[in-house]
Amino acid sequence: MTGAADNARLRPLHSVYARHSNVPREQRLPIPFIRRCVKAALEYEGVGVPCEVSVLITNDETIRKLNREHMNVDDATDVLSFPMFAFEPGCFKPPDPEDVPGPGKLLLGDIVVSAERLIAQAGRFGHPLERETAYLTVHSALHLLGYDHTGEASEKQKMRAREEEIIVMIQNPGTGALPVGPCAPEV
């Protein structure tokens, strides 16, 4: 017989809910791989509390509409991130319990990916589809954890380095970069 503690150990720490919407069958992205990419980013960043992330894989028309409504940019983009909290990049600290709506896993936010744009970019940059999927998924997950690339060059450089280290970890399980952990000192 297993007790509550045993059941808790068997459940995955993080939940990633992903689905396709308005994506033709031939453009559908591998949902298990996307889940693995999000979880790898959370692991690398030392997110040790149970979290939840939602991923919507859609087309250029839908992401353009979301970009216009939420970012005031009337153009399609490859990926959008909608973080629930403002975390310090590289220093994950869970919010106060009073700031978390309801019990259960901490909702980090939503990711929206344009499959159409991802596939086009993979071709344009000469990347395998898996590499471009990993890059955009990890990129967006890091946005949920407070990273940004629109401000100082050093922040952009830090985010790019993290992305590449996490992608190495995904591509080479067990031999990739070690997780940084919360508030790791800069090297």
CATH superfamily: Metalloproteases ("zincins"), catalytic domain
Structural class label: alpha/beta
Stretches where pLDDT is under 50 for at least 5 consecutive residues are: none
Distance between the termini: 47 Å
The residue fraction in helices comes out at 40-55%
- Count of discrete domains: 1
Specify the CATH architecture: 3-Layer(aba) Sandwich
Principal-axis shape equals: globular
Fold-level CATH name: Collagenase (Catalytic Domain)
**Individual helix count:** 6
Numbering strands along the chain, what is their spatial order in the largest sheet?
A: 1-2-4-3
Sheet having the most strands: 4 strands, mixed
Beta-strand residue fraction: 5-15%
What brief labels describe this structure?
single chain; 187 residues; Collagenase (Catalytic Domain); four-stranded mixed sheet; 4 strands
